[in-house]
């Protein structure tokens, strides 16, 4: 809103046709005074578009021989508020859950387009992660690699304006999982033996070694002998 907008109705004929403009079926000279006509009425200009100018417009050209009518064109003044309705918040979730990260864009006409960024990189939707019509980000069975820093961006291309939300941290918890099991070993008495145990999980699990119900030490390896 607040910008200059023009509509063009190009006609020709002999005698030179008279051009009239209509808004929502009403002769424009009877509906609004905030416009100007140039080039024998073929160019309609609004100097400072407002909400009141919204509507369906068409032109009619006529001479002594015939009257023709154009297709309608809809004028929608673009606007967008300067603050989000809801912004993302920090979340801690469990691996495998379905998760929604909230982003409700500002009021906008036409509706704002919402895009998401992860760790400062534009996020491409997949079957695993999608942007909902509301603007929220939805994860189907979230995984550890989905963890990171997220923010959303709302844009109105007609205003060439965008707003960026605050950042939110998404932490995905994963239970401990054994990657390398200790092996059953047979060795001579007095030999040096190393037993190894590798695990995964988030946060990284701590490891304790137990012998006959008693803790020996912590860590991924234990050396005996």
From TrEMBL:
Query: What processes does the entry annotate via GO biological process terms?
Result: homophilic cell adhesion via plasma membrane adhesion molecules
Matches recorded under SMART domains:
IG, IGc2
CDD domains, sorted: Ig (cd00096)
What UniProt keywords are attached to this protein's entry?
Answer: Disulfide bond, Immunoglobulin domain, Signal
Question: Does Aminoacyl-tRNA synthetase show up as a keyword for this record?
Answer: no
The residue ranges of the Ig-like domain are: 1-69, 72-171, 176-225
The protein's matches in InterPro entries, at most eight in alphabetical order, are given as:
Cell_Adh-Cytoskel_Orgn, Ig-like_dom, Ig-like_dom_sf, Ig-like_fold, Ig_sub, Ig_sub2
GO cellular component terms given for this protein: plasma membrane
Instruction: Fetch the Pfam families from UniProt.
Output: Ig_3 (PF13927)
Q: What is this protein called?
A: Ig-like domain-containing protein
In its UniProt entry, the species of origin is given as: Seriola dumerili (Greater amberjack)
Taxon lineage: Eukaryota, Metazoa, Chordata, Craniata, Vertebrata
């Amino acid at each position: 809103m607040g910008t200059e907008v023009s509509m063009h109705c190009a006609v020709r004929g002999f005698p030179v046709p008279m051009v009239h403009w209509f808004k929502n079926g009403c002769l424009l000279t009877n509906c609004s005074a905030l416009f100007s006509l140039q080039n024998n009425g073929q160019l309609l200009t609004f100097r400072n578009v407002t909400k009141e100018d919204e509507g369906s417009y068409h032109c009619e050209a006529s001479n002594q021989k015939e009257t023709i009518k154009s297709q309608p064109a809809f004028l929608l003044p673009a606007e967008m508020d300067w603050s989000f309705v809801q912004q993302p918040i920090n979340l801690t979730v469990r691996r495998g859950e379905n998760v929604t990260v909230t982003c409700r864009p500002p009021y906008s006409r036409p509706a704002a387009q919402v895009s998401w960024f992860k760790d400062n990189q534009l996020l491409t939707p997949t079957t695993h992660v999608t942007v909902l019509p509301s603007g929220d980000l939805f994860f189907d069975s979230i995984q550890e690699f989905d963890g990171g820093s997220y923010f959303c961006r709302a844009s109105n291309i007609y205003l060439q304006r965008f707003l960026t939300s605050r950042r939110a941290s998404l932490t995905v918890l994963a239970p401990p999982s054994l990657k390398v099991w200790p092996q059953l070993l047979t060795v001579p008495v007095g030999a040096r033996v190393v037993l190894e145990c590798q695990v995964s999980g988030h946060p990284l699990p701590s490891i304790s070694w137990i012998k006959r119900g008693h803790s020996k030490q912590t860590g991924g390896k234990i050396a005996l002998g």
